[in-house]
Amino acid sequence: MKKSLLALAVLGAFAGAASAQTNVTIYGVADVGIQRSDTNAPGSQALWSMNSGIQSGSRIGFKGSEDLGGGLSAIFQLENGFGIDTGALGAANTLFNRQAFVGLKGGFGAVTFGRQYSPFHIAVDTIDPFETGMAGDASGPFGNLAGYPIRVSNAIAYSAPAMGGLSASAIYGLGEVAGSQGAGRQIGVGAGYANGPLNVQFAYHTSDLRATAAAADADAKKLYLGAKFNFGVANLHAAFGNSEAETAAATTKARNYMLGVSAPVGAGTILASWNRTDFRTANANSDLYAIGYTHALSKRTNLYTSYGRTNNDAVLGADANVFNVGVRHKF
């Protein structure tokens, strides 16, 4: 109870500051839907539930900047995730679990410090026709091996100024494990090209998975290359990923493939994708087929629905089906 009151007090303080300064923006997303999921496993039953953040994670955030002169600005962003279905914080004991950083921005680009999105996630989210949401969320298949690096804590990030459609970024997350310089460390880089109808994204991320200095060596490496092209009547999306998890006992490898399409139809958009995870091991593959539709009620509010089916080989477990319908409002 005390922690909840403290969280509300902090949010209220930031809201007051935002109203007093024009360079601070309050923003957010309220997203909730009804979902049916089942695994087709013997004896299992379908589950109906109300879920928050099906299309986009529900959040409230604060961002702003201060002009320091000479083309230099101080920037910050604080973002809290929460559940519309219950009103609970998105992460226990963490107020700004989605983003929390401060930094400097100028002609050299931007340098920021704190909890931030990884270049890997930004690349996947940019190319995925479902934008890592709904039943076609590509972060699941691309995270099947050794996890999916959405955000990095204790991170130093750099974004280069865009030039002729080219972009580049890098992130370094300190492991902060006593007695070791490398344990828990994360390093990621990304590059992109966006010009006219073409958008190409590349990313590489490596994580040291050791939780203590004395732990045996364990790390994960992920590579992503994706592109989308706007043909006018529809967008074509395609991506390739390669993952490797290495421990003292064994090395496991997987490849990911994604093909998708997004087509505007009146006030809505039809979405479809196929994601395959090839574990490069016999009888250990997975295919996700998804279709969805979003319908804009205004610039900030839309309805959505999607259906996804995952076909798993025996090693991965039972097949799964997911259907959802919901509403999202941005503010």
Automatic annotation (TrEMBL):
A biological process from GO: monoatomic ion transmembrane transport
UniProt GO molecular function: porin activity
Swiss-Prot/TrEMBL keywords: Cell outer membrane, Ion transport, Membrane, Porin, Signal, Transmembrane, Transmembrane beta strand, Transport
SUBUNIT field: Homotrimer.
Record membrane topology: Multi-pass membrane protein
InterPro entries: Gram-neg_bact_OMP, Gram_neg_porin_domain, Porin_dom_sf, Porin_Gram-ve, Porin_Neis
Gene Ontology CC annotation, any one: cell outer membrane
Signal peptide bounds: 1-20
Keyword DNA damage found: no
Pfam family, one: Porin_4
Ranges of residues in domain Porin: 7-314
Lineage, top ranks: Bacteria, Pseudomonadati, Pseudomonadota, Betaproteobacteria, Burkholderiales
SUPFAM superfamilies: Porins
Protein's cellular compartments: Cell outer membrane
Name of the featured protein: Porin domain-containing protein
